[in-house]
Amino acid sequence: MKNKKQELDFEDRVEKVKEIIQALNDNSLNLKDGIRLYKEAQEHISQANKMLENAEFELKNALEQQS
Question: Which of 18, 49, 65, 67 has the fewest CB atoms in 10 Å of its CB?
Answer without folding.
Answer: 67
